[in-house]
Amino acid sequence: MDNLDKFDIAILGELQADARLTNAELAQRVGLSAAPCWRRVRALEEAGFIKGYRAEIDRHKIGLGVLAFVRLDADRNTGGLTLAMEEAIRKIPEVVACHYISGTGTFELQVVARDLDSFSQFARDVLLNLPNVKDMHTSFSLGEVKASGALPLTHLTRTRA
After folding, report:
1. What is the pLDDT of residues 50-80, one digit of tens each?
2. Beta carbons within 8 Å of 118's beta carbon, 6+ residues apart
3. Cα–Cα distance between 126 and 5 in angstroms, integer?
4. 10 Å Cβ neighbour count for 107?
5. How far is CA 97 from CA 44, 63, 73, in A?
6. CA-CA to 20 of 20 to 30 Å: which in 41, 127, 134, 160?
C-alpha cells in the first residue's frame, strides 16, 4: 500500500476532520460505495497510515491551564543513557509530546499542568530527577494560535498529478 490514490487521500482527510463518521457517511463524502470504502479504511489501518482514533479533549475544561515547552539537556548523549531517558519520559502522563531534537538540548517536551505552582512542583520532583538530566529550560504558552493535530495532505495530491 505504498501508493495512495485520490480515494485513500480523501479518506485520510475526512477521518482527520471527523473520525466519528460512519462508514456510509465517509463513503458518500469520498465518492465510493460502502464496501470498498470500508476495505480501504482497513487497508490504511493495517498499513499503518491510520495509527488510531481518539477524542480531542479541551485541556482547559479538565483543569490543565498550563502548557509548558521544556528543553531537557542530557548530561551525556550515549545510546544507553538516551534510551533510559526516553523510556522514563514515555511513562509520564503530563508529558503530552516529546521530540529528540538537534541543536541546543536533547529533548523538547510539551508538558501540561493545572497551574504554575503544580508545574513547578512537577518540574522539581519529576523532570529534574529523570535519568541523565543535566539542565532544563522552560517556556510557557501564553495562548494557542493553532493546535490542530491534522496533517497536511496536499503534497500527496500534487505528486499524483
Report:
1. 999 998 899 999 999 999 999 999 887 777 8
2. 66
3. 46
4. 21
5. 24, 18, 16
6. 160
- Alpha carbons 93 and 151: distance in angstroms, whole number: 23
- The whole-angstrom separation of Cα 43 and Cα 40 is 5
| The residue type at 118 | S
Dihedrals phi, psi of 70, to nearest 5 degrees: -120, 125
C-alpha cell at 41: 479504511
pLDDT digits (tens, 9 = 90+) for 76-134: 777 788 888 999 999 999 999 999 998 777 899 999 999 999 999 999 999 999 988 99
The answer for residues whose C-beta is within 8 angstroms of residue 64's C-beta and 6 or more apart is 112, 113, 114
Buried b (16+ CB within 10 A) or exposed e, 1-23: eeebeeebbbbbbbbeeeeebee
What is the SS3 string spanning the chain?
Answer: CCCCCHHHHHHHHHHHHCCCCCHHHHHHHHCCCHHHHHHHHHHHHHCCCCCCCCCCCCCCCCCCCEEEEEEEEECCCCHHHHHHHHHHHHCCCCEEEEEECCCCCCEEEEEEECCHHHHHHHHHHCHHHCCCEEEEEEEECCCCCCCCCCCCCHHHHHHHC
Cell of 4: 495512495
